[in-house]
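[Automated response] Your request has been received and processed.

Submitted sequence:
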Amino acid sequence: MKTPLKITFKNLDPSPALKARIGEKAAKLERFCEHIVACRVVVERPHGNRQQGNLYQVTVGMTVPGGELVADGVHEDAHAALRAAFDAAVRRLEDHVRRQRLDVKRHEPASHQTT
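Generated structure:
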């Protein structure tokens, strides 16, 4: 992976398995946009969420030319939260690339003809 990757764990111990999976997922992001300047991934388990069990939140922040893209995923399983966050990140990147290429669908102005 050419893009600098920073991984942060909050309120839980770093997991080698999660780190490896994050590295794989982050490397795949470059297939959708080769101009990613930086990628930051935060894996956390917020405190005080006892009604819904132990939820994991994964946030993926990407710096790209023209802006900052952020995607996140929340789930009771850390790997499922990771998958949801990176799926959302891919959608954000695809939207960003479409906007950069001006591939966004444009609506024709309505013609106001009287008959």
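Summary generated for your ticket: The chain has a mean pLDDT of 85. Residues 35 and 64 are 6 Å apart (CA to CA).
If you did not submit this request, please reply to this message.
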